[in-house]
Design brief:
Layout: H1 2-20, H2 33-42, H3 47-76, H4 78-90, H5 98-125, H6 141-154, H7 157-164, H8 172-181, H9 186-197, H10 205-214, H11 220-232, H12 236-247, H13 253-266, H14 269-286
Helix pairs in contact: 2-3, 3-5, 4-5, 6-7, 8-9, 9-11, 10-12, 11-13, 12-13
Organism: Leptospira inadai serovar Lyme
Protein name: Lipoprotein
Keywords: Membrane, Transmembrane, Transmembrane helix
């Protein structure tokens, strides 16, 4: 009996953390395909039929939500966890020679299940970088694109912002065109960047890498979005561009720390050594 109570209490605490946690995946409709289908097929649009049908769709919706939370969405995130594990533990780095890779091979084997299941749990619980998947778009993309194209043609800033803050999927080319149309509008740029980077992966990122590098050093919020995707996808071009900005002192002191950390995380051995030498020089100059 006590064991059952402990299990139930643990389950409830776990569910509470997942459901009410920061940036929770369950709040993104793209992560709850069963709930979307319940809303689409069982919930009437008119108020009176909706009230009458409530005893039917509410319990079905709750069951769909639990299945989305603990089964469907975690299964959808398995490919992402697999790719992250391969990238972190099994992708050779040019700066690591054969002997180094062989020395770390036992650790890679031991850490593989830890990294995989930890990454799977994190991606299942939290809406990391949007995690937009085309297979889970709840509306017709053509219907979604038409309003934003009209808003762009009319320069309707309010409509553009409303669309950018929605969960509707967009092709990355569309997000990039919005940024290029309003290069000086920091709010539109930030929201469009969030929409753009959320759709990128190892295969699609190279097509947009140069454009994203060109958006660096515009404003701190945009930089945080860009540095996040550069670290996630190990952009060497970005590392070189960031190093150049740091070297020529074009970066504010507030942003310099994030830039340097990004170089240390994704930079080549030469880039990292330059940063280490600079930091060592600063430390030496501060000594009495």
């Amino acid at each position: 009996m006590k064991r059952s109570l402990v299990f139930a209490r643990t389950f409830l605490i776990f569910s509470y953390i997942i459901i009410f946690g920061y940036n929770c995946a369950i709040f993104n409709r793209n992560n709850t395909p069963l709930i979307v289908q319940v809303e689409k097929h069982l919930v009437p649009e008119e108020p009176v039929p909706k009230i009458i049908a409530a005893p039917l769709y509410i319990p079905i919706g709750l069951l769909a939500g639990l299945l989305d939370l603990f089964l469907v969405h975690p299964i959808m995130r398995i490919p992402n966890a697999y790719q992250d594990t391969i990238s972190i533990l099994w992708t050779p780095r040019p700066e690591n020679r054969y002997v180094t890779r062989m020395a770390f091979l036992p650790f890679s084997v031991l850490l593989t299940p830890v990294i995989f299941f930890g990454d799977l749990f994190f991606r299942s619980a939290f809406d990391v970088n949007g995690n937009v998947d085309r297979a889970r778009i709840e509306e017709d993309p053509i219907k979604q694109v038409k309003p934003i194209q009209q808003a762009l043609a009319e320069n309707n800033r309010a409509a553009i912002l409303k669309w950018l803050t929605s969960y509707s999927y967009s092709e990355p080319e569309l997000s990039r065109s919005i940024i290029d149309k309003y290069p000086e509008d920091a709010e539109i740029r930030r929201l469009a960047l969030q929409k753009l980077v959320g759709t990128l992966n190892d295969k699609t990122f190279p097509k947009f890498e140069d454009s994203l590098v060109g958006y660096l050093n515009k404003d701190p919020q945009s930089d945080r979005i860009l540095l996040g995707v550069f670290r996630r996808l190990y952009s060497k071009k970005a590392s070189e561009a960031i190093l150049n900005l740091v070297r020529t002192r074009q970066v504010s002191k507030e942003n310099a720390k994030d830039y340097i950390l990004t170089i240390l995380y994704i930079g080549s051995e030469k880039d990292v050594q330059f940063i280490v030498d600079q930091l060592s020089g600063v430390s030496e100059n501060k000594k009495p």
